[in-house]
Amino acid sequence: MGERLRRMNLRAQMLKFTLLTGGALLAAANVHLFLAPSNIAPGGVTGIAIILNKLTGWPIGLTMLVLNIAPIVVGFQYLGRFRFLMSTLYTVLLYNLGVDLLAHWFAATTLTDEILLNALYGGVVGGIATGLIYRGGGTSAGTGVLARVLQVRTGIPISQIYLVTDGAVVLVAGLVFGWEAGLYALITLFVWGLAADYVLEGPSVVRMAFIVTDKPQEVADVVFRKLQLGVTAWPAEGMFTKKEHAVLFCTLTRPHERSLRQAVAEADPEAFLVIGHGHQASGGMFGSPHRARRGNGQREREVNKTIEEDRNSK
Length: 314
What we know:
Number of domains: 2
Order of helices and strands: HHHHHHHHHHEHEEHEHH
Number of strands: 4
Radius of gyration: 26 Å
Structural class: alpha+beta
Largest sheet: 4 strands, antiparallel
Strand order of the largest sheet: 2-3-1-4
Distance between the termini: 45 Å
Shape: elongated
Helix content: 55-70%
């Protein structure tokens, strides 16, 4: 058991190192491939460094490193102290110094002169890099530390936090580079946050269904029989009518929403159905209508028999 735990811990550490390294290098390349060539300063320490580079000629990476000292101190206090410090220092050093080291390689590299493409792809690549870094347990410091602190404490999505924390930098970019460049930077900032959220949380492929019904057993039976989904029930009371109801809950995959709606309507046309988004589900009876249909023979009879026995035992 001890050896197995050590191997699992080693794999976890290797994955963390890979995510941090990949995210930091991708972020460094993003500065030269999409952001700096088009004067796109999408907030944060990166945006400030790009602005200062155009005004003073200071190296972008070194400027970022100096500006990151204060955020690292804040992160040390609120995001895990030495555990945060080790992962973030590694990421910041690799990212910030990597920007200046890669400057020689990308000096003559311009994928496109179209500022809109640079704004969009700069946001996508930057968001992916940020998401990888966060999944590795680190941050790129800067306003990313503030965003992470606010996300942990409030649960607000990173995309919304970025719009607040980095808005001032985008405003300065508009004053320095022109308002058109500022508007493109805002597009980059928005896409950046969406891409980071996607990498962190994954696609929304799970649906959560809440069914308010006066026929809970009938609805549960037909959902179980046709979709092979486990259902959880609890009592509820209508606050306006003061009438007792039952609330059923189940999870299903996105393509099977229509099958659930049809099943609920068949059992109780008056039922109130709400389907929400989720990201992950594990355990329980998280099934698929296709499996139920493939077992229409013996499996269907077994399910019906189980339901009937359950009714008779009550």
